[in-house]
Design a protein that fits this description.
The complex is a heterodimer of chains A (about 270) and B (about 220).
Chain A: H1 27-31, E1 40-45, E2 58-65, E3 70-73, H2 83-94, E4 99-104, H3 115-127, E5 131-134, H4 144-156, E6 160-164, E7 181-186, E8 195-196, E9 204-207, E10 211-214, E11 220-224, H5 230-243, H6 249-258
Parallel strand pairs in A: 1-4, 1-5, 2-4, 5-6, 6-7, 7-9
Antiparallel strand pairs in A: 2-3, 8-9, 10-11
Chain B: H1 8-18, H2 21-39, E1 43-49, E2 56-63, E3 73-74, H3 79-87, E4 91-94, H4 100-110, E5 117-124, E6 127-135, H5 144-175, H6 180-194, H7 197-214
Antiparallel strand pairs in B: 1-2, 1-6, 2-3, 4-5, 5-6
Classes of the chains: A alpha/beta (about 270), B alpha+beta (about 220).
Chain lengths: ~270, ~220
């Protein structure tokens, strides 16, 4: 008898990879020619404004209602703050082919309790999106355990959770978890420049200063904050996943770090 | 002579003497005026979260809107201030395009449509209790991360002001008898303090006897 979580020799299955990983991972191999088509990206935020010219088609729109965590369709596609629309516009510009969805976890009456965030994340996992963009976090310790479990569940089912680091030096989650792709900002005005961080918890830095974005009520502006760095990595992730759907989250992180702008491969 | 209240009420009395609602208003006004001067901004404001309803209320304003905005309320979770409070994250926005719908929304809420706006949460521990906003500072198109850092420092100062004054207000409520449990003791302590000579000595004997009975 084997211990729990063991495998018998005759039970083992082959792990498939379309063409294996090349000896050298290049940006061209990783996402060249891919616009993210076929990949479903979900923005968990203040909602995404349907019909905004910088967002384009919104495939699905949902909202968490109240603290009991019910999720219902939001056919009108309303964004009451503007932030979710901004994140969606960055993803659309960087990965134009993706299928965009929105789960509104902040809306009228939202006081950032964290319960809506958990409900939204659970729902998004259930919908089977490929990439979740979470440009917010919670510092409530009472939700830590459950949030951790959700982040791990996403990791094991190959849903890539991209989370922005907090802009202030406070303890917050889920960006600090190793199971997510965490993103902070750099000030270079190039959406394809991103850095791998040799000293985590933040693992990557992407464009987060003066980023052109769409905003609610048909608006547009330039925005600064880690919130706007995360969607750049979410979009690149979508382009990579579109081209290499067999990648697991840890392989995806390897590809991201090997294609980072500051990566120097020692020979 | 032993203080039967263990110094707790003395502390409350001292805090009560130091800060009140007027002091909170003055402290916050000082923060927004200083922030406006440092950033060379058209306007700065502090909005506080109403503890009961979660609404955001303008508590102090310097510059544009100074006269009419204080006291104006917004439902929780709406607008840029609502997002900052709900998430505890600061934001910096520039080159805000005055799309007619956006301009109408902004004008309805603040009577002013900014080209640039930054907002940082006032954190009580890890909990946002308000937001500090700066509109149209100069120059707003460079060194954005540094500007956000500086705004964060001001927001921290404003949060401390709110904490100190709210603590004092709680002590004052106790002394005023709104907190029934501590109110009785507070009122007795206040009267004891007002006594002198033999009457004070008798009063203290009575308190000591009461303490023995309760022990």
């Amino acid at each position: 008898v084997l211990p729990a979580w063991s495998i018998r020799e005759d039970e083992k299955r082959a792990v498939t990879a379309a063409a294996g990983l090349p000896e050298t991972i290049t940006r061209d191999w990783a996402w060249g020619g891919s616009d993210g088509a076929g990949v479903r990206v979900c923005i968990l935020d203040s909602g995404v404004e349907r019909g905004h010219p910088q967002v384009g088609e919104l495939a699905e729109s949902w909202m968490v209602t109240g603290e009991d965590g019910d999720v219902v369709a939001d056919p009108e596609g309303i964004d009451l703050a503007g932030h979710g629309t901004a994140c969606a516009s960055i993803v659309r510009r960087t990965a134009p082919g993706v299928e965009l969805a929105s789960v509104r976890v902040l809306g009228v009456g939202s006081r950032g309790s964290g319960k809506e965030l958990l409900a939204g994340l659970r729902f998004a996992l259930g919908r089977g999106y490929d990439v979740l963009n979470l440009s917010l976090s919670t510092s409530r310790p009472d939700f830590l355990t459950e949030l951790h479990a959700i982040a791990d569940a996403a990791y094991f089912r190959r849903t890539i959770l991209v989370a922005s680091a907090h802009n202030l030096p406070v303890e917050s989650y889920p960006w600090r978890f190793a199971s997510v792709v965490s993103v902070g900002s750099h000030a270079v005005a190039d959406p394809l420049v991103f850095y791998a961080n040799p000293t985590p918890p933040v693992e990557f830095f992407a464009r987060g200063v003066s980023v052109p974005v769409g905003w609610r009520a048909g608006g547009s502006m330039r925005a600064t904050g880690n919130s706007f760095a995360a969607p750049h990595i979410a979009a690149l992730t979508a382009r990579i996943v579109a081209k290499h759907p067999e990648l697991t989250p840890f392989q995806l992180k390897t590809v991201l770090s090997l294609t980072a702008s500051n990566m120097e491969v020692l020979q | 002579m032993t203080d039967p209240t263990g110094g707790r009420l003395e502390t409350a009395l001292a805090i009560g003497a130091l800060a009140g609602e007027d002091d909170q208003a003055a402290l916050l006004q000082s923060v927004v005026i200083t922030a406006r001067a440092i950033f060379a901004a058209a306007a700065t404001s502090v909005l506080l979260v109403e503890p009961g309803t979660g609404e955001l209320t303008f508590a102090a304003v310097a510059g544009n809107g100074e006269q009419e905005l204080v006291g104006r309320r917004f439902p929780p979770g709406t607008g840029i201030g609502g997002w900052v409070v709900a998430t505890g994250m600061p934001l910096l926005l520039e080159d805000v395009r005055s799309d007619p719908r956006f301009a109408r929304d902004a004008a309805r809420s603040t009577n002013y449509v900014p080209t640039a706006l930054m907002a940082s949460p006032l954190l009580y521990g890890e909990t946002p209790i308000g937001v500090l906003e700066v509109l149209d500072w100069l120059p707003h198109d460079e060194r954005q991360l540094e500007a956000l850092d500086l705004l964060g420092l001001f927001a921290h100062q404003a949060a401390i002001a709110v904490r100190v004054v709210r603590g004092a207000a709680a002590a004052q409520r106790s002394l005023a008898g709104e907190d029934a449990e501590l109110g009785v003791i507070a009122r007795v302590a206040t009267r004891l303090r007002a006594l002198d000579g033999a009457r004070r000595e008798s009063g203290m004997h009575l308190m000591t006897a009461l303490e023995e009975v309760l022990t």
